[in-house]
Amino acid sequence: MKECMRVIDCSAADGAGELLRLRSLLGAEGQVVSERSRQLTRDVFGEELTAQQVVERVCQAVKSEGLSALLRFTEHFDRKSLTGSTIRVPATELAEARYASLREAPGFLEVCRRIKRNILAFQSGILHRDATMRQPGKMELGLRYRPVKRAALLVPGGAAAYPSTLLMTACPAMAAGVGEIVVVMPPTPFAGYHRDMLALCHDMGISEVYRVGGAQAVAAMAYGVEGIEPVDMIVGPGNLFVALAKKHVFGTVGIDCIAGPSEVVVLADPEAPPDFVAAELLAQAEHSPGSAVLVTWSAPLVASVQVELERQLGALSRESLTRDALARYGALVLARDEGEALEIVNQLAPEHLQIAATDAVGLANRVRNAGAIFVGHHTPVALGDYAAGPSHVLPTGGSARWASGLTANDFLKRTSMIRFEPEGLRQIAPDVVALAEVEGLTAHAQSVRTRLESIKGIRSEEHT
């Protein structure tokens, strides 16, 4: 029987090359796109385009044409015909959804409220505070934090409903004090037309909700279109098109990170339970596309995990999609030793890293690059996905080498506050003037000298 995942043996002659190809596949350049999305691209544009080319065309059209382009792409990609007056979810519909949810499934909103408390508690606890350093009679230096005015939350919903993403994006924004929170969801039965998703928006006090998704939603939030004001910040996960669109509009607006298709790396020692490891790999692969990689230095574990994957796959509701994701975007990596396994993890810089090892804490302390680390056998990634507190919006595609997951602090702007007294100016002025003259910026130097002359004049008057 053919194994459902490839094995990369780092000791083999082609091991290094295979690992490089895996790294490339997991990055944004890897073009992790579902076949449905590829077909849609061909249908809409009449030719085979890269994801980057699609995003550039969509964003430019929305920027130049506004609402008409947004509606056109929504019809093309989501097969939904909307107008400027129907793209926003009415307040009455949000309220009706909440009442229906409370009546028909009251436990759902209760669960969400408990999770909301968890997230808010964590996010509020890590919030940056204003800081000031004073030298009495000389100067006062500080940092002041203020939230952005308006933020858009991207909530996916192509194949499933994701109330967890709504919670994991909205709660950090609320903890930061963002005044205007906008939710954008694709017009699908799992998102913009999902009763419980709309109910949760209303229950959280979010009233501005739009039925739009994909790169066109990102462009509309960044540039604004008729009836939709542009935002200051865009956050949230999505497919490759969404991730590349966020990258495209960065600079016009702020973004959190490049959060594309989901991925997990499981770092496991020889004693790791194979059923735990297999379950963790399957949990990410079922996103489809979703990447799942095992890194270990135990050949027996690789063999045992292969058996477990086949056993557990049969019980999954999304078996076919999960199996395809494992074959396309998964791998079982056999390192030569623990040190090489750690280096591979740091090279991959995964979104999620689950450490299945006896000394999980020790290994975690040696990891440099990961969006989130789940330490030990009893900490599955699903805890972070749904309820723990830190946001599940995390950097993907190796960007954890330099990027971080979403927190309340991402919604805060940092402003320097500088105030000098005359004595402080007098002491620091010679150094400022000296550097200004080295740079040939004589007006800078003169702006300081003018004030020094004023200070001397004041002192002369005091003496007289």
Describe this structure in words.
The chain is α/β, with parallel strands linked by helices and 464 residues long. It contains 18 helices and 14 strands. Strands 1-11-10-9-12-13 form a six-stranded parallel beta sheet, with helices on both faces. Strand 9, helix 11 and strand 10 form a beta-alpha-beta unit. The longest helix has 22 residues. The radius of gyration is 26 Å and the shape is globular. The N and C termini lie far apart (101 Å). The model has no long low-confidence stretch (mean pLDDT 92).
As a percent range, the share of helical residues equals 40-55%
Radius of gyration over alpha carbons? 26 Å
Number of strands: 14
The backbone outline, from C-alpha atoms, is globular
Please list the strands of the largest sheet in the order they lie side by side: 1-11-10-9-12-13
Estimate what percentage of residues fall within beta strands: 15-25%
- Tell me, rounded to a whole number, the average pLDDT: 92
Largest sheet features: 6 strands, parallel
Structural class: alpha/beta
State the separation between the terminal residues, measured CA to CA. 101 Å
The total count of helices amounts to 18
Note poorly predicted spans: none
